[in-house]
Specification:
The structure is a homodimer. The first copy, chain A, is an all-alpha fold. In chain A, a hairpin with a 6-residue loop joins strand 1 and strand 2. Chain B binds a DNA duplex through helix 4.
Chain lengths: ~180, ~180
DNA sequence: AAGAATGCATGCAACACACATGTATCTCGA
DNA sequence: TCGAGATACATGTGTGTTGCATGCATTCTT
């Protein structure tokens, strides 16, 4: 048995990333009945933003401003969000409706369930090891805040452990930018 | 410091998968100047198939048959593939042109470069550990051959070590289906 | 108070994709 | 050898998602 090629790990990582992203997207869109970007928007609205504006949402999702407006149009038409007055007159807030929050929660659960099943073959110890390595890679991929889109869109804040300071990205961000 | 939540690993895995997929897609489309599915098609045509037919391509990419026909239209229009007679009169072969192969190779290199940089923070030992864990997860995600789309689309066969029998998916497939 | 900047909305267009259908070729049985 | 069914590719049509350019309202700066 000859040595594995140097790039095998890289290749496997790419395959896993693609496969996992596919499965999550499939589960999430099946569960919520809405498109991928709509799902990402709902997830973000459920978690990231206090009083989410259209503009902020466009940053999180990496969509253009007009694209985000259309997306919000669709979500509003489906009764998942409603537009309201923002903090000042120039902005519009986009809070979730009760139905929207329900869909968002379901979609997050579906995501975590898929991810959990992917981790199925690993022991507890191995998961811990994996978490460490993945955290380091994610930290390495960090960019300045507000660069393009959130690397963490679709993240589950509670699961991530961010409030308790367990999220490696959050910790790194604190260390870098205070 | 309280214990990390049980789902943290799952969440980190999801974040990494999304981030990696994003970066790869960005690099690949920047490099090749074509869409994501076009890039996947070029990669597949460069590697997976002996005498690729439209139908087979649609299976690999998980596109509908008509969608694949349009995709091939575009690729042909860009001079990246050319349609030719297939093995029998009913089929059409879609080999890469020289230009197409060049683009495909560049795109694969861009992909591996991104993945390699993601692995940057890890030591050699850690990469080895990661490869083992990722391989196990991928095997766990396997489905019957011909299910929907290839989990390995965009894979680099040489990097994967498939010819030498290093690819965990290939090994598992052999064990299962001979 | 005037001008610049910011944020949201809309007209318009492009792109990728799916569904339904049409057409050509192959396969198999009588 | 002929015809029925299967297979594979192509095309008409419609839809959903996105971006660009632009218009308009509000806020900030000087």
């Amino acid at each position: 048995m000859t040595a594995a090629p140097a790039d095998q790990t890289a290749n496997l990582l790419g395959a896993l990333a693609l496969a996992v992203t596919d499965r999550v997207a499939e589960a999430v869109t099946d569960r919520s009945g809405c498109s991928e970007s709509a799902a990402a928007a709902l997830s973000a609205l459920d978690q990231f933003l206090d009083r989410p504006s259209v503009d902020r949402l466009s940053q999180v999702l990496g969509l253009s401003q007009s694209g985000t407006v259309r997306l919000v149009d669709r979500l509003e038409q489906d009764g998942l969000v409603r537009r309201g007055p923002g903090v000042d007159g120039g902005t519009t807030a986009v809070p979730l409706t009760a139905a929207g929050r329900r869909v968002a929660r379901g979609l997050e659960a579906a995501r975590l369930q898929v991810l959990d099943s992917v981790l199925g073959p690993l022991t507890e110890d191995e998961r811990h090891t994996l978490a460490t390595l993945v955290g380091r890679m994610l930290v390495g991929m960090m960019r300045e805040p507000g660069a393009t889109r959130w690397t963490c869109r679709m993240c589950d804040l509670a699961a991530c452990g961010r409030p308790a300071g367990h999220c490696p990205l959050e910790r790194e961000a604190r260390a870098r930018y205070g």
